[in-house]
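Predict structure. Chain length: 352.
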Amino acid sequence: MPSVPHTIFALPLRALTWLGSQGTRAVAAVVFIAVAVPPLGALLRPYVTEAIFLLLCISFMRVDLAALYSHLRRPALVAAATAWTTIGVPLIVGLIAHATGLTSHSPGLALALMLQGMASPMMASPALAALMGLDATLVLVTLVTSTALVPFTASLFASLFLGGMLSISPLTLGLKLLGILAASLLAATVIRWIFGAKAIQRQKRPIDGFNIIILLVFAAAVMGDVASDLMSQPMFTIGLALLSFTIYFTLLAITTLLFRRIGYERALALGLMVSQRNLGLMLAATAGALPPTTWLYFAMTQFPIHLAPYMLMPIARRLTARADASSGENKADVHSFASHRRSGGTSIHGPR
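Prediction complete.
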């Protein structure tokens, strides 16, 4: 008979494995649970920084070093994608915010949009790309390079566009971002050293399940007041939700079109990464000392972040099927040509 400790640990492990197997459905369900149970948000809000730290640790812990090195051997694409997400996006957002006068008319919203633009991609982006059958390795390596740069680029753009809107200086913001990222990377490295990469890979599903629980902690903490805001200021709240969806899909579409030459399947993977901004990292760096409008916009961004992967699954499946078919045709052509050469066949121009 199994021992009592074995049974005690087996049940949660099974639950986490089941949760991890739910994929994009579980990710989508997170936002509805967060909105439907406001007391959960009040309970979990003090733990936003810890939740972000754990999400970062899990992502760094699961980095495929061999895949990372293989992509770094072809740096041009990674450099272009990194430049677009860390420099292009915040620069465009900052210029639009200033050109439209948003910084003076609605500083809280302007701050939210700038922090969104300056943020690195979400650490869960490779996992979401993998769940959708997209090129998770390309997303991963671009995520790593972008995350490494964000303490410096965020500090630069904060000094250029935010002025006195932040409660901390741009330099302090950069140093805090650097500290959070360095600490999570160190913790992930220690975990990999203790347990090994193979053991982490074997426990993929339970880790996915634990990741979804941490996502729920973060989403509940950020979205705890959404229901009351919707009742007190419905038009403003709905307007912010529509704006968050518009920005998400605009970034997705522009990125996919910019990188379409590498194939729409891989371009969509980059688009997913660029549109999934790590606002939690910005919340952790600023210790949540942000205006109410900024908090509300951050809450609204959770809807496209969690729902879009589920909504985009049919498109991703069509693109990956088309890419697989194209790859199969190319391999068949190569095999046919090789067989033709081995059999002493002639070209259309006759024997030479």
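Summary: The chain has a mean pLDDT of 80.
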